[in-house]
Structure formats: C-alpha cells, structure tokens
Specification:
Shape: elongated
Radius of gyration: 28 Å
Number of helices: 21
Helix content: 40-55%
Strand content: 5-15%
Structural class: alpha+beta
Length: 404
C-alpha cells in the first residue's frame, strides 16, 4: 500500500498511472512529493513525470490543458483533480535568467540532472514501490541539507527564482543550505530583479508561512538579498522572532499585513503603493490600509470606552485590526488593553453585537430634525442600548434628546 494513497489526489494519480503504463509509457511520481514522502509529510500536490510526449499525453486523456507544450508540461483534468504531467526533459540554454530557450525530451536520469535541488530531484516508481535517486537526494534529506543539483553557479545562473526557492525550503524544512549553494546565492543575489514581482511574492509568502521563517528571513540578509528585495527597509531580527515565529499565524493576509506594517508606517498611500508593486490582491491592500489607519485609535485605547471598542470590533476587519495591533506591539501592551478587550467582548451575543433598535425615521417621529444630528443621535442611542442592555424599542426611544 503506497503512502500516497491518503492524498486527495490519489485516485487521479492512480488513473493517470494506469493509463500511461497500459499504453507502454513510464509514469513516476516526481519531485517534492517524493521528498515529502521520505519526510512523512503530506505533499500539497503530486506531479507525474513520464516518457510520453505531450501530444501522446493529450491523446490519452479526455481533458488536458497544454500549459507548456514546448516544455513538455500538461495538466490532466481527471477524477475532479488537476494533475501536472511532464515529459522527462533536458533543458537547453537559459538566456533570460528565468527559463530555457529550448528543451530536449529524454530520460528520467537526465530529467533529474536538470532540476534545482537534490531533494527535489527524486522519482518514485508506483509499481515497484521504490525511490529512484540519480543525484544523492536521499542522503541530503537524511542529513537535512539543501544542495543544488550539479554546479550551484550554473543552477542559479539559469533561473534566479531558485535563490528564493532555496530560502523557502529552508523556511519550510529547516534544512541547512550547504556552502557551495550559499556561495552561488551570494554571487547571483544582485540579479534577483530578473524574477517577476508575482513570482517573488508567491515565494515570499511561502517563506513567511514556514516554521523556520525567522531563520529564512535572516538568510536573505546574510546572502545580500535584503537590499535587492526590500530596498531601505530596516532589518529587525527581534521583531521577526515575535511576528513570524513557529507559533505565529499562518494566514496569508495576516502575514502580509504584519510584514508591511512592521516595515512601513509612513502613510496609507505609501502602503497602497507598495502593495500594488508586490501585486497583492486589492482586498489584501485594503486590509493593510485599514489596519494602518486603525493603529492610532488602538494605541490610544486607554481613552476608548469598552463599548466603543466593541463597536470597532464589530466592523468588517475590526477584529483583524485588533489582532494585528496585538501582534505588532506585543510586550509593550499594558494590562488595561486586555481588560478593555475582555469587557468589549461582553457586549457580543453569539459573536455579534445586537442590531440597533431604532432608525432615523423613529428619531424624526420623536422630534429630532432631519440632518447631521440624526447620525450623531443614532450613535449615542446605540451606545446606550449596548451599555444598558436595552432590548425593547420603546425603552430606547425614551432616551431620545428632542430638539428644543
């Protein structure tokens, strides 16, 4: 029984494997999934490598998407899953620091030699239930080492994204980046700008989510990457230990907010500009800006009544802003803050504040003139309703201050 059988993609993998092998082709589990199998980790995705050519893969399955036919990469849609099926290949010359000019379809052994790190260059034969290792990846997994396949200088010269991938694997696995790989990163760090903002963004959030994120962030500073990625932002290891330690949030939006607010509190406009440069989703940028604007109010929490804090917490992203404030300023928050939060939570019923019992028409009927005063009076009445726990509309209407 294969350890992969617990994976949600297993039925799809089994079906693809059966179809390819019955038609005379090889079908091996490839790359990171094999590494995770050895580490007893559940892989995110399982990819298949095969000697079938892209057009042969396309002809064998009803639903395929040729995402990179020239590079031998297909997506097979089967059993409700989207599985990558790639033809064994050998890469040609890299001229742009991102991808090869051409590829040559070849064997599993040659395919292993063109991959980035030894721990990602393993194959698993589902029929024989054995690992195929052409580059010493199993030994590096056992000794917890991140090492390029072949020359580190060549691997990083080919694709600068591999620099961040090395750091990401350190963040996720805690493995040591060995000396020659380290030297290759340092040599090519200045050229990281050849990588698109989107690819940097995707790698960086994986780094922040890793159990060893703090150490990985430190590697960017050690390797000369910091200024290339973050310009003049101050590197602060003590802050990272608090914000991105092993027990920190793994929520992507929370991590982005903490990352940007811990480095830039210049203005909401500047934060929005940086968020757009990093190609973050519009909704995430809006939450970064909202939390930034909320910090000043929360810093003055000793002047904020518990009922007003409860109303703040009930707003969209209110509790998110509270969480961000607590994480950013942990260790410097006075006991009064936690007392206020605890008291504010008493106003909630099943996680929500009661709806206000009256509206503007009620106020006008009771003698309040239409205009700006309506909103102010509604706000005042809502505070009274929450504080006095009023549940009857007529009782709240009795609290209206009529125009003189």
């Amino acid at each position: 029984m294969s350890a992969f059988e617990k994976h949600p993609q297993w039925k799809a993998i089994e079906s693809i494997h059966k179809t390819l092998t019955q038609n005379g082709y090889r079908a091996l589990v490839a790359g990171g999934a094999v590494r995770d199998l050895l580490l007893q980790r559940m892989p995110n995705d399982i990819d298949i490598a095969t000697d079938a050519l892209p057009e042969q893969v396309e002809g064998l399955f009803d639903k395929t998407v040729m995402v990179g036919k020239a590079f031998g990469v297909s997506r097979v849609l089967i059993e409700g899953q989207d599985i990558e099926v790639a033809t064994f290949r050998k890469d040609g010359l890299y001229k742009d620091g991102r991808k090869p000019e051409s590829v040559e379809f070849t064997s599993a052994k040659e395919d292993a030699k063109r991959r980035d790190f030894t721990i990602n260059a393993l194959f698993y034969d589902l029929d024989k239930k054995e690992i195929m290792d052409f580059v010493g990846g199993q030994k590096d997994i056992m000794t917890k080492v991140i090492r390029t396949v072949g020359s580190a200088d060549q691997r990083f010269a080919e694709d600068k994204l591999r620099i961040l991938r090395a750091i990401r694997f350190h963040a996720q696995l805690g493995f040591t980046i060995e000396q020659q790989t380290t030297e290759g990163i340092r040599k090519h760090a200045i050229l990281i700008h050849q990588v698109s903002h989107e690819r940097i963004r995707d790698e960086w959030i994986k780094i922040l989510k890793g159990d060893f994120a703090v150490s990985a962030i430190g590697r960017t500073n050690d390797f000369g990457l910091w200024s290339q990625l973050f310009g003049s932002w101050k590197y602060s290891s003590d802050d990272y230990k608090k914000l991105f330690g092993i027990d920190s949030s793994k929520d992507e939006e929370v991590l982005w907010i903490l990352w940007f607010l811990s480095h830039c509190q210049e203005s909401k406009e500047k934060l929005a500009e940086i968020g757009m440069q990093w190609k973050l989703p519009k909704s995430t940028i809006q939450k970064i800006v909202y939390c930034f604007q909320s910090l000043s109010q929360l810093r003055n929490i000793h002047n904020v009544e518990a009922v007003d804090l409860a109303i703040f917490m009930s707003k969209p992203n209110g509790r998110l802003a509270l969480e961000i404030y607590q994480q950013l300023y942990q260790g410097r928050i006075k006991e009064l803050f936690f007392e206020k939060v605890q008291k504010a939570n008493t106003f909630f019923e099943n996680g929500e504040l009661p709806t206000i019992l009256v509206n503007g028409e009620d106020l006008i009927a009771y003698g309040v003139s239409p205009g700006p005063r309506i909103a102010k009076e509604l706000k005042r009445l809502y505070r009274i309703q929450l504080i006095e726990k009023i549940t009857v509309k007529e009782e709240l209407l009795g609290k209206i201050i009529k125009d003189q």
